[in-house]
Amino acid sequence: MSVSRKMNNSHYFSTPQSLSDWLKPRLPSDSFASWGIKPGTKNIHNLWLEISQGETFLADSTPPIRTVNVVTVKVINKNQTLIESHQELSDGSVRNRCRPLSEKMKPNESLKDAIFRAINEELGSILKDGNEVSINIVNGSYKEKVEERNSMSYPGLPARYVLYSADVEVNGLPDGEFCTEETEEYPDSEERRVAEKAVSVKKHFWKWVLAVL
Fold first, then answer.
1. What is the C-alpha to C-alpha distance for residues 29 and 16, in angstroms, rounded to an integer?
2. Long-range contacts of 7-13 (CB under 8 A, 24+ apart)
3. Contact indicator for 158, 168 with CB cutoff of 8 Å
4. Measured between alpha carbons, how far is residue 198 from residues 103, 129, 155 in Å?
5. What are phi and psi of 44, to 5 degrees?
6. What is the pTM of this model?
7. What is the largest CA-CA distance in the chain?
8. Which runs of consecutive H residues, i.e. helices, occur in the chain?
């Protein structure tokens, strides 16, 4: 399961403002103006961070197409699957999710590394309070597919998601509903200063649902 992907951005944006200037003539004005204003959306600082971290590629088109590699971690427990029901964002809004744990992949990151990082970032706050943690990726559960759809986070910006998924067993999780806090993603750097202006996830809310056969 040594899957990794590398994306080279054809554009370099030194600041969120330079990215904004490049996008404005390429997107519907009303959609672009709603970024970070409409509940559940992200802002230009979020997109700049994604690009600077190599998580997102923008095609030079009108409108640009945002390509993202995403790992979907289907945490299973007998006949149940862990679902993120909703998120509490830094602007006070709530974003409904109703999907398994997922995370954008880093450049050159293997599927295994992405799975372990995603679990640590999104479930780590509750796992650290429990017993010794073990993570097992189920053999033969790996899947890959591509979805193209409009982005909920960035209205007006079409998205192409390359999705990699696997079933994973994680011990030490609560049996009922629970919430976790997002860990710090950026060190003390320019990215961190930009992140302070971005819309971030403060809490994740999880529940177990019966697995669909």
1. 17
2. 7/54, 7/56, 7/57, 7/67, 7/69, 7/107, 8/57, 9/51, 9/54, 9/56, 9/57, 9/58, 10/57, 10/58, 10/59, 10/60, 11/51, 11/58, 11/60, 13/48, 13/51, 13/52
3. no
4. 17, 29, 16
5. -60, -30
6. 0.86
7. 53
8. 16-23, 29-33, 44-52, 111-127, 190-195
Residue whose token pair is 């806090």: 181
List 88's β-bridge partners, or say none: 94, 203
Write the pLDDT tens digit of every residue in 142-181: 999 999 999 999 999 999 999 999 999 999 899 999 999 9
Determine how many CB atoms are found less than 10 A away from the CB of residue 70. Answer: 17
pLDDT digits (tens, 9 = 90+) for 68-121: 999 999 999 989 999 999 999 988 899 999 999 999 999 999 999 999 999 999
Type of residue numbered 83: I
Residue corresponding to tokens 């904004």:
20
In three-state secondary structure terms, 17 is helix
CA dihedral 72, 45, 189, 201 (to 10 degrees): -50
Nearest one of 41, 14, 43 to 196, comparing CA atoms: 43
